[in-house]
Structures are given as structure tokens and as C-alpha cells.
Amino acid sequence: VMPNGDTQELSTLLALKAESTPLNMVQIPDSAYHQFGMNPTSVWFAMKHYEGPLTKAHQKQWKQVAVACLDFICDLHKNHHRIYIDWRPENVLVDDKGGFVVADYESITTISRTKTRNVPFDSRWYYMYRGAEPDQWLYSWKMDLTGIAYMLIRLTTDGGSDICREFLEYRAREKKTHSSMRYLAKKRNDIMY
Predict the structure, then answer these.
(1) Whole-angstrom distance between the N-terminal and C-terminal Cα of the chain?
(2) How far apart are CA 147 and CA 141, in angstroms?
(3) From CA 156, how far away is CA 154, in angstroms rounded?
(4) Mind listing the pLDDT tens digit for each residue in 45-104?
(5) What are phi and psi of 157, to 5 degrees?
């Protein structure tokens, strides 16, 4: 449920369904009459009932989670030319058959032609933490792969938000020593891969 003036997620959802529904996307009704609802203050979309979000109880199913998410982004990247960005366990839902689907489409965006090094300094680190490279496009497929990796690490370990502590420590030093962005990206990749 979103405020009535914020229809971004609903628009994205309907556009994805109209183009060709990506694999492992939530199921919404085919009838436009049943797809969404509005009242004076909010808007929402209807979807199939799911058991709930991904939890530590699904830790041993991490491979199935990974396959479901990778299938979703392969389809999203190849057929829709968009990226997801918002990889969190609460955005992956479990269906009644034990399968996994990706939900929450508010952050889906198109690939940006802006280079990471050309965004404001304070924002740059956020995107690099998410997988952006200094000399590459700001939003890219690599950000989705990095996001899935972070989510799987959170699912399978007790690391929580500390999964990339070393990179964040380098980030703090970067502001003091002006280390190169390429060096920081290499350090992040060494940690991740």
C-alpha cells in the first residue's frame, strides 16, 4: 500500500506484466479490474497470497533462492533492460509449494549511462558498495549480482549488515587519504568474490 500520489511501483509492475512477465515475479490477476485498487489516500496492487518473506528458516535452500533470483534478473535484464537493485530477504517471498518469487518493484530502474565517478561524491560510495564500478555505468547488471550476493550472505550467515565491513572501513579511510576509487572497487571485489 502506497500513498495515492506514488504510483511508481504499480506502474512498473503493470509495465513488466504488459511486456512479458519476468520469471519468478509475483502473480497478479490478469483482469485489469482486479489488478489494483485506490482510495482517496492510497493505492495498492493485488497479488497471489504468499506464505511470507525469506527468513533464516530458508537458510539451507539458499541455492534455490539464488536460482530464482538469477532467473528473475536474467529475464529482467535481457527482456526488459532494467535492474532491480533492492535485494533484501524481505523482498523475496515464499509460495505455498516452497518456491521463491521476487517482490517489491519500487526500486526497479533502467540502466543509467551516467558513469559512477560523475555522481556526487557522497552518493558515489553508496553505489560502489552496491557493485558499481568507477568507470562503468552507475546502474548496471553487476549491482544486481552484488545485491543477490549480499542477500545470500545475510541469509546463510550471522553477518547481517556487517557483511562488507572491510570495504566500509576503506571507504572511511578514502575520505582521509584519497585512495583511488579503482582500489576500493578492487578491495570490494576481493571481499565479494
Answers:
(1) 37
(2) 10
(3) 6
(4) 778 889 999 999 999 999 999 999 999 999 999 988 889 988 999 999 999 999 999 998
(5) -130, 175
Q: Provide the phi-psi class of 24: left if phi over 0, else alpha when psi is between -120 and 50, else beta.
A: left
Exposure string over 51-78, b if 16+ CB within 10 A, otherwise e: eeebeeebeebeeebbebbebbbebbbe
User: Angle CA(91)–CA(51)–CA(62) in degrees, nearest 5?
Assistant: 55
Give the ranges where the chain is alpha helix by DSSP (H).
Answer: 8-19, 32-35, 62-80, 121-129, 141-156, 165-177, 181-192
Q: Is the pTM of this model over 0.85?
A: no
Q: Which long-range contacts (CB under 8 A, 24 or more apart) does 128-134 make?
A: 128/171, 128/181, 128/184, 128/185, 128/188, 129/164, 129/167, 129/168, 129/171, 129/188, 130/85, 131/188, 133/185, 134/180, 134/181, 134/182, 134/185
What is the Cα–Cα distance from 3 to 42, expressed in whole angstroms?
A: 4
Residue 112 in contact with residue 123, Cβ under 8 Å? no
Q: Which residues on adjacent β-strands are paired with residue 121?
A: none
